[in-house]
Amino acid sequence: MALMKRINDYGFRIRLEKCTFLMERITFLGFVIDSDGRRPDPEKIAAIDQMPPPTNDSKVRSFLGLIQFYGSFVSELFKLRPPLDALTKKDAKFQWTPQCQYSFDRVKKILKSDLLLTHFDPNLPIIVAADASQYGIGAVISHRFPDGSEKAIYHISKALTAPQRNYSQIEKEAFGLITAVTKFHKFIYGRHFTLKTDHKPLLSIFGDKKGIPLYSANRLQRWAIILLNYDFSIEYVNTHDFGQADALSRLISEQIQQKECEDRVIAQVESEVLTNLVTTCDQLPVTVKMIRASSKKDPLLNQVYQYTISGSWPKISDKTSQLSLFHNPRDQLSIVSDCLMFNGRIVIPHALRSRVLKMLHRAHPGIVRMKQLARSLVYWPAIDKDIEKVVRSCDLCASVAKNPIKNTLCSWPIPTAPWQRVHCDYAGPVDGRYYLVIVDAFSKWPEVIPTTSITSTATINILRRIFAQFGEPKTLVSDNGTQFTSSQFQSFCKDRGISHLRSPPFHPQSNGQAERFVDTIKRGLGKLKGEETTDTALYVFLQNYRSTPCSSSPDGSTPAQNFIGRNIRTFLNQLLPKDQLPNSHDTEMEKQFNKQHGARSRSYQVGEKVYVKNYRNINTATWISGTIQKRIGRTLYRVLVKDAVWIRHANQLRRRDNPIHKDVPLDLMDPIDVTTTPVPAPTSFTAPPTPVPTPPVPMPRKSTRITTQPQRLVVKPEQKSYN
């Protein structure tokens, strides 16, 4: 009756002719269910038992699919599957081995045995046990009955992947517990249960007595956090008494595990000691004794040493040989304390040059200062080039370097008609509101729309209203705000055939048309604040701006004249004179900008290594390494930085040279520490520049010529000709 009541409570109806009542046993979905629990359907098991051994990988997959359906009954399934799973891997050669036959027969034998899983009862104590082997994990959830017996509810098994097989044994055991808990989540969540393991260290890791071992804290810490969601008590069970889960696999003996652990620790310690030794030796200062010993082992310097002592140098016909580099300045070479000197500077052998460069660059000076320091102490051929490479390849120096010389100014193409290209940006918040600023690149006609929301939806609604009034532009330029980079906004532009261009991140100059007007409107509204309301101030500003002649607008006319073909009539319309200043073209502005700022044209090739300006975190390096992936336009580049692709302007890139890697022989290291006093770099004094008088700028005068308005052609469709 309880079943009928529940069916009625949920609004279901049943047909009596399809129902059977008072059945002690039913067969349902391949299982036989009775009051004791559930077991596999004997008919299904008979079909599996009659299957012949597979002859190809497809039949192996079919067999594995059948037995996986009854995997909850077979506690050893994951232990028996690996030989069969190996036959299903890609490019694996099919070969039926004795191990495959054993697994095949063993699975069928287990399925034919008396398998029974008890029904889940939330009122009985719940026990979850898990164990791990070299190739997989197995787990079981069971009930503990009043008589002390335990009966399984469900078995699971899982084969370990290749990375998981590299886990340490404690991590495999912990992974088995986590897999069991997550798999049995619906049975145990919100209920107290007992978690059993035969790996005693897990008691202190997943219990509440001790902390997590440092050598494996990261992965185990994540798993410990997962277990915080459950109410459980963990128990240790000896491996010999761990029959339910341990039947899934037999662990490697404790002695072997300890031996392997010791070997790994010893190897790791030896590797760390060797690394620290090499690092420490590289940081030791180079002494005169080391230079003297290394020079004797250097074939080139040893030869130069002999020629310098004898004073007789042979004629060198090959000007490209290494000896010719010392032949030309041979008169400046001398021997002091068995060391080769060049004008008072000691000559460094090839083996020690990289270490000397590190010593010279310890304070990270620039190229000029490092050369000045080196020229007072050491010498070798082409030392200047080596110094330049060291400084340019130093990541620490590059991360805090100044910005490079600005790239030559590249103006936007000049539009030939209104509303071909428009620039937009958001200004604000001003008094709790934002303003969407839209500027026509041809006429400089501005549109400013107040809004309280700057989402993609709100932006699209505003643009729909503007485009309904003036039409769809060919190109829309914006910054990288989320409202402009969303897929919704991209679809909006694509559906209307609008080419959407975005300025590079952290380079607002590329959208200077809108950025400049944002600054203009902020200043304009600030000046009118207190005299007018915010809305009135906005309308007064826009009317004045649109009706004022603009030198950057074609012919120096007003934005209204170039946009709508007429001037806006205002109360000042009759008083404003015509702008007589000559038109200033963008090309002339480019020349003036390049000359004033000393800008130089700069380009990068695909695959070239560069330093990229980093704006993402102020606490990290300012310049980081990257590789040019693609050039976009005249000044934009797509740069590969680690695993991400950044878009940067040429002004945000610097060239990068490959660092120098030179091996230093360890046998040349001398433990004696000789402190050397660095010679300070010479200080130069420059007289202050003499001020140059600036000639007065002539004031433009207003023309006194009487001008008349031109007679414009008015098109009339009904008129056939015009006089």
Automatic annotation (TrEMBL):
Q: What is its EC number?
A: 2.7.7.49
Q: Name one GO biological process term.
A: DNA integration
Top-level taxonomic group: Eukaryota
Which InterPro entries does the annotation name? DNA/RNA_pol_sf, Integrase_cat-core, Integrase_H2C2, Retrovirus_Pol_polyprotein, Rev_trsase/Diguanyl_cyclase, RNaseH-like_sf, RNaseH_sf, RT_RNaseH_2
Tell me the GO molecular function terms: nucleic acid binding; RNA-directed DNA polymerase activity
**A GO cellular component annotation in the UniProt record:** DNA polymerase complex
Q: Disordered: where is this region?
A: 681-723
User: Which Pfam families does this one have?
Assistant: Integrase_H2C2 (PF17921), RT_RNaseH_2 (PF17919), rve (PF00665)
Q: Pro residues compositional bias: what residue ranges?
A: 688-699
Residues forming the Integrase catalytic domain are 414-567
The protein's UniProt keywords, in alphabetical order, are: Multifunctional enzyme
- For this protein, the parts annotated as crossing the membrane are none
| Name of the featured protein | RNA-directed DNA polymerase
Q: Which gene encodes it?
A: Cnig_chr_II.g4376
